[in-house]
Amino acid sequence: MARRSGSADLPLHGGQVPKWLADRMTRLGAVMTQAVVHHYGRDELLRRLANPFWFQCFGAVMGMDWHSSGITTSVIGALKRGLTPLQKELGVHVCGGRGRYSRQTPSELIAIGDQVGFDGGKLAQASRLVAKVDSAAVQDGFDLYLHGFVVTDDGHWAVVQQGMNGQRRQARRYHWLSEGLTSFVDDPHTAIEGAGQGEIVNLADRRAAPSRGAQLDLLSSLGPDRIVSELARLEGPEPRTEVDVQPLLPHLVMPAHHDVRPEDVVARRLRGNLAAAADRGPADFPELLLTPGVGARTVRALAMVAEVVHGAPCRFSDPGRFSFAHGGKDRHPFPVPLKVLDETIKVWKSAVQKAKLGRDEELGALRRLDDQARTLERHATGPEVDELIAEERQRSHSYGGRSVFGWEQPPASSVRTDPRVRAVSKRR
After folding, report:
1. Which residue, 51, 94, 267, 323, has most beta carbons within 10 Å?
2. Mind listing the pLDDT tens digit for each residue in 344-359?
3. Is 171 within 8 Å of 163 (Cβ atoms)?
4. Cα 372 to Cα 363, 392, 397, distances in angstroms
5. How far apart are CA 86 and CA 154, in angstroms?
6. Are 161 and 130 a contacting pair, CB within 8 Å?
7. What is the pTM of this model?
8. 418: Cβ–Cβ under 8 A, 6 or more apart, which residues?
9. What is the pLDDT of residues 86-104, one digit of tens each?
10. Peptide bond before residue 333 is cis, with ω within 30 degrees of 0
């Protein structure tokens, strides 16, 4: 994966992920991870986790708030819960987490190293250095509170960290990848996400090497006490050598609004997902579509999950689109359709289990859904984004719609016309 930096505005959200969603995120995240490893290998999984755009879409397709900082915590937690029972089979281990769990990362790495044979002490040191670079060498106003370390049996790793700026109600996510890493202090990040906060002191930039050297020389020659006294005598800001302006880099801007708006979605891609589901569903899933509870709506969700598993990096510039698979726990763009989400998990789990036995037919069918979406999106037509959201909310109760506000109820118009309700009213 090419080394790069990126930025995104990640609004801070409070609260916790409800258990009914966290459990499903754990199961869906596990089977999606297994599918990625089956098709592309463990190193590709690490590359994807080190891609901030893919990471955001990964969380959105599982029913988390599509734009918020909460995706980071919930995805790392879901992967740790879901992959721990599979670590011997997959050779993928998830360490760390939020708060006190982040501080347990070094001991977890040493223990795993003892089990599988890599140098756990060396990776524990890498974990500490990664955290130190993003907390001290990159002074951008964000305090780290989450550290997730994903490592394979080969000793290759990816790190996802997140810091917060409470005053601005914003978060910044940092992504690291061991592939091609030669230094912890010369441009080590694969990506940094977060909104611009003004002037940043980045001592991990290769252009800061003279500054790092000068700081060490100054400390050696003067000592800490003389440095403090000299600083106290200064009457103005210390003259600085002008440095080159950092070039513009790819960045993901996540809006502050909760609702998913048409401008948050690449409509042609969404229509491609919908058209692929309509086109490939009957051809590839004849038995599935005869199963009670599984229909066209589930196949649409399967198409979006398939894109997260198989899509190219350029496909993940609009995380809001992936919330159309399973909605969001905060009811945006619509409540989580639990019946659809459960069927999605069931289908992917079945496909992965059969693939382990050498039967790739179902995984192949899911992959064709993604291929077909790209083929059809240039010509597909369909409802506008607002119309699709309204339709999903209208039908949400029939899909088992649920959010942090409770179960979704039938629309008032449906209640008035339901003959059973009229009969009860007459008896009363």
Report:
1. 323
2. 999 999 999 999 999 9
3. yes
4. 14, 23, 30
5. 16
6. yes
7. 0.80
8. 410
9. 999 999 999 999 999 999 9
10. yes
